[in-house]
Amino acid sequence: MDSTHDFVERIHDKQRKDRQNRKRQGRNDPSNKLPGKNKK
Question: Compositional bias (Basic and acidic residues) at which positions (predicted)?
């Protein structure tokens, strides 16, 4: 039972990270990108 629970936890963690990455990348639309670090 633990291995199944661990598997589900890993899947949820990966999905959460994927959502965050999609937000940052803007899905190939530059106007949707969140501002990143800018060199000054």
Answer: 1-18
